[in-house]
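I hope you will forgive my troubling you with a question about protein structure. The record follows directly beneath this note:
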Amino acid sequence: MSRLGHWDENIRDLAGKALFKLTPGSKDQILGSVIPRLLERTLGPDLYMRQGSVIGLAEIMHALSSETTLPSSLLSSVEEIIPKRVHWSSLNRLTGFSNKDDFFRRLIITA
């Protein structure tokens, strides 16, 4: 899961795709430990990790939804990511990025 916080966007995407492929074979571990950690990391100070966590959650949700009905508690936790975790005040944390609008747009689209 550490690659979800990599500085290179392509590595974060590949890490998410890896979670998609790993999810069907280890649903219990994904539901029990990976998803809670990813939800927690969407609150962290590291912008790359926040975005990577959203990518990872999206890929896991996609993998789980094709095989089973998702638990309502999981759905509600993930649905809260945008209103709770992606707040306009987080734009202030983007200092140092050359194209803040593009990076923020990517974060929202990924969710």
Summary: The CA atoms of residues 16 and 47 lie 16 Å apart. Residues 2-110 form one domain. The mean pLDDT is 79. The radius of gyration is 14 Å.
